[in-house]
Amino acid sequence: MSSAFVKAIPAFQQVKDHVTQQIRSGAWKPGELIPSERELMQQFGLSRMTVNRAVRELTDMQLLVRIQGSGTYVAPGKYQSTLVEIRSIDDEVVARGHRYRSQVLTLEASATPAALKAIGFATGSVFHSSIVHFADDIPIQFEDRYTNPQLFPEYLQQDFHLQTPNHYMVQIAPLDRAEYSIESRMPDAAVRKRLQMEAGEPSLVLSRRTWVRDQVATSVTLWHPGSRYQFTGGF
């Protein structure tokens, strides 16, 4: 990894990472009392203010629940259900009984204003990929993605014919939160050509940004032919 991408982890983040890992691994169960702030102070050799910040931020993220006079607990499992499930397109295609393949169009470093803004960088460059995803050789999704090189330094070395960006990234750094929007939009000529759409046909567009810790991990726009795709779900 380039030394330019190496960044010291703040002390409070070390506590957050430890607590999050304990929860994700199942070591600490939903509704279970976690160690007190004093115990965490002793374990990490940190000040009360630092540990308190970590616990407070995890509470704001709804991973923890603080009960006055009782202690801090792992939040109930319903926290997970408040997040939109992020499924990899290849899993979705195969689950519906179709054959999946992809065509990688772009895999590069980009320093354009749009690329930097997508990840929240003021300078430098980010990684950019564009991929068409197929079900039985019919294009169903055009993925235009910007990715944080500090979190995924080997992104450009991946073969995204063998695995999707989603599969790769969750193995490296599982996301902590996500924001998304879904809208109907008319595609430009380039997107229409990649998805083999008729002139005048609208697209269903999912725009999503995800975070790992306090950094934007990836910002992606997913275009789908309106006549060949629908979003479904439940909670």
Automatic annotation (TrEMBL):
InterPro entries: Bact_HTH_transcr_reg (IPR050679), Chorismate_lyase_/UTRA_dom_sf (IPR028978), His_ut_repres (IPR010248), Tscrpt_reg_HTH_GntR (IPR000524), UTRA (IPR011663), WH-like_DNA-bd_sf (IPR036388), WH_DNA-bd_sf (IPR036390). Keywords: DNA-binding, Transcription, Transcription regulation. The keyword DNA-binding applies. It comes from Paraherbaspirillum soli. This is Histidine utilization repressor. Gene3D superfamilies: Chorismate lyase-like, Winged helix-like DNA-binding domain superfamily/Winged helix DNA-binding domain. Residues 9-77 form the HTH gntR-type domain. PROSITE patterns: HTH_GNTR. The keyword Lipid metabolism does not apply.
